[in-house]
Amino acid sequence: MYKIAVFVSGRGSNLKAILNLVSQSKNAIQVGCVISDKIECPAFEIAKNNEIPTYSVSQIEQKGYQTYNEIYSIIEKLEIDLIVLAGFLKKIPDILIEKFENKIINIHPALLPSFGGKGMFGIKVHQAVFDKSVQVSGATVHFVDKIYDNGKIIAQESVDISNVKSPEEIAEKVLKIEHKLLPQIILKFSEGKVIEKNNRIYVL
Ligand code: GRF
Questions:
Q1: 107-204 and 1-100 share a CATH fold
Q2: Does domain 1-100 have CATH number 3.90.1150.10?
Q3: Strand blocks (E) in 81-199
Q4: Is the CB of 67 under 6 A from ligand 1?
Q5: Number of C-alpha atoms within 13 angstroms, CB side, residue 2?
Q6: In the chain, where are the structural domains located?
Q7: Residue to mutate, 6, 7, 11, ligand 1, most ligand atoms under 8 Å from C-beta
Q8: pTM above threshold 0.90
Q9: Which end is more exposed in the chain, N or C (fewer Cβ atoms within 10 Å of the end residue's Cβ)?
Q10: Structural class in CATH, domain 107-204
Q11: What is the per-residue pLDDT across 65-103, written as a single tens digit (0 to 9) for each?
Q12: Which band of pLDDT confidence, cut at 50, 70 and 90, is reported for residue 58?
């Protein structure tokens, strides 16, 4: 069994897409836990309805624990193979990145390395893409390193946005791609088909 931890902050539509993959995989892939920086969020409801344990970074903070030490031991205890950031808004502390090198991936709603970095999340990304009159956008799955949206790119898919009338319209088009691309790549990880060769990432 291949176990993942999903980090979320809000709506949880990518989590839903991952859970579809889980059921298609007949539980060969499992979501071991869902972690959020919020105490409550719609994504937590989705997790609870699927009987997946949830942990809140803020709640742990309130309890006075050393937040990410706690998160680290939860992930270790659950024997998580891959950490998936699906709309998680906080920066992952260096200590966690060092401990899970090449085991943390993120989905970004634009074609990196453009339109990424600190503060580039949610509708802000699509607004910036719209304002530049960019003709093609898309989604990027990449490794997480110590710098925002900077890790090596694993997969990208693009969409024509030459006729859109608003950033919201771009968001809608890109979200559809995210829901396809992220589960696809998680499946490839579970099959050992994401490899690094000659300093590049290949999905077999
Ligand atoms: C997605 O667009 C993701 O790429 C971005 O935040 C959004 C999260 O959406 N980083 P959801 O919570 O998965 O619905």
A1: yes
A2: no
A3: 82-85, 104-108, 136-143, 153-160, 194-197
A4: no
A5: 19
A6: 1-100, 107-204
A7: 11
A8: yes
A9: C
A10: alpha beta
A11: 667 788 899 999 999 999 999 999 888 888 899 999 999
A12: confident
